[in-house]
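Methods: holo model generation. Sequences were used as deposited, without trimming of termini or removal of tags, and paired with ligand SMILES retrieved from the corresponding compound records. Each pair was processed once, and we did not select among multiple samples. The sequence and zinc ion SMILES for this entry were:
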Amino acid sequence: MAIIKQYVNLPSGVTNIHGTTRTLKLRPNNIPNVGNGDRVEWWVEPGWATNTDEIYLSQAQRARVRNAETVIQPSGFFENEVIFPHVGGDRWVVKAAKKGDRANSVSTDIFETWRKIYYTVFYVGNNSLNFFNALENDFQDAFKLGYVELENTTKTAALTVVAKVDGTIVRNPGLSFPFMAGAPNGVIDLAPSGAGTLTNKPYNVAILVAPDIYKTSQVARQELGRRAVVGSTVYHHPMFTDPGNATAWISQGQVRWPGKPWTNVIPQFSLPTNTRHNSVVRWDFSTVPGLTNHLATAANTYEMRYTVVRLHPIMGYSFCNFCLVRTKDGLTEVLQTFTHEVGHGLNQAVEKEPRWDTNGASLCDEHNPRWHTDVYGGRGPHCHTNAVLGAAPPGLTSGQRYRYGGAGNLCTMYWSGESHVDPKGKFCPSHCEPRLKRVKLDTASMNAKFWNYFG
Ligand SMILES: [Zn+2]
Ligand SMILES: [Zn+2]
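and the model returned the structure below.
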């Protein structure tokens, strides 16, 4: 029998291969022994042994036919509907026979349940495009195992080619993504910060591939009771510097003392030199008018406040239906980052799942034994397949964190980029892959994950 892919997450009605419900029609002469006035009975049968266990499906979610029996319709057909579960990787066959004559049934082809997610690529320079193309098949394959079919809509060149994309998310006032704001300052154009749109929302993830990425944050300090006009301070992070703008690294620098309002002293700071982890900020206020005179009186002090711009080199991130990666890390790491981040967007790794008994009564949730969250390293829900707990550096409340256990591959949903993560960015076959098959990716659940946010 032929296999028909049924994309159960997409809205019904556009084509009969979309949605969990599909109309079936049979002519009387297709059904053995059916005569005028006969009733036809319908039922579903599994098409193979690896369907998702119905314990994970409520009664309303289980495969079935709408009507157990039908009579001929004015259209001249026997008509019915088959209802598929929302899961991927199920196979079902619908059968029909004259009532009481199941031995002489007719069958449909095999329906195989899939979910479809679209992706739209933006690339910064042709190297980024070639880079993405080189990992695209593996990217699709990692999800195919969970019966999620990834389909590319378009690949679009960025508005400008830059060596590093500033991926900073601005949170005040309101959330905005300056790099998406369109020309002249944005790198790409995508709503809500820009005007660009995505098709097939809320099933479309926008992907930005860039050579390198960073983000910035503001770090403010205020110091009272200062006497020295020359000083320095060490920050345990690099500063954001821009060859074209000597003061890009400092957004505020002011001093004041009694009788004197806040005065700008940014020019009195010198450009800090970044090492990998440190940055030394120096200032010399001896030329600030009136300050030296003021400090000539031994009891006098002044106040200073300054805000520096911290540089955060980042590997990438995902936010709603947007994912940003840098090619700097190499194909394997970026592939892993993609499947990991899109995996989060598809609700991996889950902590627990609801279950029901044969009659549809609720059972207790099933807890994922490989699920872990922040206290053992990382932020967000992750998977610790093939990892073990070990001593953690200070800062983790648990005092322990997961690390590689020495055998097998780590899951792509492991909490950190690590050399033992599956080199093809795959979900662990024991825990995440079956859950990827079971996760609901219909409109309501994608909207709940804000997959309608960008574009
Ligand atoms: Zn993660
Ligand atoms: Zn896993």
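Residues 349, 370, 383, 385, 411, 413, 427-428, 431-432 surround zinc ion (ligand 2) (CB under 6 Å).
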